[in-house]
Amino acid sequence: MTKFSYGPDWKEREDTNLIVIHSSLTKPNDDDGVEFMRSLHMRQGCVDVGYHYVIRRNGIIELGRPLYAIGNHCKGRDHDSIGICLIGGGNVKGEAKSPDYTAVQMTSLTHLCCYLVRVYPEADVCGHNRTDTSSLCPVFNVADWWAETSYSLKTFNLENRASMFPLLTDTKKNV
Ligand SMILES: [Zn+2]
Q1: Residue 165 CA, ligand 1 centroid: distance in Å
Q2: 75 Cα–ligand 1 center, Å
Q3: Which of 51, 74, 92, 171 could bridge across to 64 with cysteines, CB 3.0–4.6 Å?
Q4: How far does the centroid of ligand 1 lie from the alpha carbon of residue 138, in Å?
Q5: 148: helix, coil or strand?
Q6: What is the mean pLDDT of residues 73-82?
Q7: What is the 139 CA–ligand 1 centroid distance (Å)?
Q8: Mean pLDDT taken over the chain
């Protein structure tokens, strides 16, 4: 494991308008994580991994750069965005294909995005291919996914579901 005797001189973001979803475009059986992405990006000359979060195939959310720091993942929008990378999205040759992210990865992505939009209410959730139209990353329609996910979560939170959770001490039925 890399051990830094000093931290990189992080530049703080002044605005956070986008939460950008990426794909590692790695092969389905490659169980990579933040350390793999970190070594890849550092070999390319970055001070650290470019993303703020990496979501492994098993759903574990790993921390990349500090959340407040400017990342290195989205040309032209690094100054006002957060980067999340899903591991996977590539075929056996590592080419972009229809996504095969695991169910637990998508659940983790939902939780993470819900958390981040609370911290940064002005931020929109989008795919890398929205800011870079030549990119296929993250190989699925993030706008549709987020519209559906955030809508169903909002609906669930607004409905009164108390009847689904009866109190164990409720004896009214026996009266
Ligand atoms: Zn990307």
Answers
A1: 42
A2: 10
A3: 51
A4: 6
A5: helix
A6: 96
A7: 9
A8: 88
